[in-house]
Amino acid sequence: MAKAKGTLLERARSLAPELVALRRDLHRHPELSFLEHRTSGVVAQQLEALGLEVRRGVGKTGVLADIGSGGDPIVALRADMDALPIREEFEHDYGSTVPGVMHACGHDAHTAGLVGAARLLVAEHAQGRLPAGTVRLLFQPSEEAADREGKSGATRMIEDGALDGVQAVVGIHVGAHLPMGSIFVADGPIMAGSMEIHVEVKGRSAHAAHPDQGVDAVVLAAQGVLAAQQAVARAIPPVEPGVVTFGTIHGGSANNVIADSVRLHGTLRYFRAEVRERLERSVSGSFKALEAQGARVDVRFGPGYPPVVNDTGVTRVVRRAAEEVAGRDSVVTMEGWMGAEDFSFLAREAPGCFIWVGAALPDSREHHHPRFDIDESVLPLDAALLAQSAVALLKERTR
């Protein structure tokens, strides 16, 4: 094998201007889940310019390409591409040009980082430094949402064969709330599973002056929400993490009319299937109990994501790769977090490792916020970390 000139991180830093330009281009042109047509086109062009054979339309709007010998072992690297239905409030010159849509979770950075990793790995292969095997690049659509059949981008890519033969899969997420340059990794369950909650409370309309003639769906829905929150404290053991949140409530037609219907949309979060089942029973029971007061209630659960569970063996290799790229002091053991990620579906198909990389600005931002942004100097680190993880996993699997 040819001797490498500089570390992967040093070579990634030389790509920084191009990675920043790519990230900003994607940031200006965000696209919602399963609508990432421009984004996937830009990605495909970048990969084809590297001489790679690109497969488009994977999982509806995803992109796939392989680097290496084409044989086993196969190690996959994943980046998500979709944006969110949020109106951006920005103070920079790369703000969203799409009304009501923005990259508020860092997926533009993930995409740019994986393109950077592709460039590093293609160079490694050309110089004969890439271990035997194949690195599969997965540019995934729709991490943030599911389609009408309740399937997110990871599931759709799996159905299209994206993980066929894959022996390990790695994904990263930038953290706009985490210290810049720190890498957070741990094995086992690191992110919660989530399940959507859909509730309709049906009452009977009446004039506000005669509430006795109606069944007030607003009052009953409020009772249901409070009962469901209390259920979290009583349905599961105190040492078990579980969360129930209702994010939207819609109902009523006028201020002086008793509402005949209220719709609620929420989520429950968990790490163990038993906790999910208990929360589902408790939430359902909290609202079904309203029927004793004259309401009719419909409660449905789903779609949802299972917990992200990092494989011990893959995580051990990725941790060593992270230490090699950034130094041992920069690698932190991640604590479990109640956020959800559809990388979980990929990690159920193949042993996986999902890691977080700190990218906080001096005035750190929150994800899914109109002013979300990151420190773009994280992009070379993302690229080098993904590339080094792939190299290390190929070496480990060809011993």
Describe the structure.
This protein is α/β, with parallel strands linked by helices and 399 residues long. The chain has 10 helices and 16 strands. The chain has helices at residues 8-14, 16-28, 37-49, 107-126, 153-159, 217-235, 273-288, 312-326, 343-349, 379-397, and strands at residues 54-58, 62-68, 74-80, 134-140, 166-175, 183-185, 188-191, 193-202, 206-207, 242-251, 257-258, 261-270, 296-305, 308-310, 331-333, 352-358. The strands form 4 sheets. The chain has an 8-stranded mixed beta sheet, sandwiched between helices. Helix 1 runs antiparallel to helix 10 (379-397), helix 2 (16-28) runs antiparallel to helix 4 (107-126) and helix 4 crosses helix 10 (379-397). The longest helix has 20 residues, at 107-126. It starts with 7 loop residues before the first helix and ends with a helix. The relative contact order is 0.20. The model has no long low-confidence stretch (mean pLDDT 96).
Quaternary structure state of the chains depicted = single chain
What is the end-to-end distance?
A: 16 Å
Task: Note the overall shape.
Answer: elongated
Structural class: alpha/beta
The portion of residues assigned to helices is 25-40%
Secondary structure: number of strands: 16
Task: Give the neighbour order of strands across the main sheet.
Answer: 1-2-4-3-5-16-6-15
| Average pLDDT metric | 96
Residues in β-strands, percent: 25-35%
Order of helices and strands: HHHEEEHEHEEEEEHEEEHEEHEHEH
The gyration radius over C-alpha positions equals 23 Å
Task: Summarize the biggest pleated sheet.
Answer: 8 strands, mixed
Number of helices: 10
**Uncertain stretches:** none
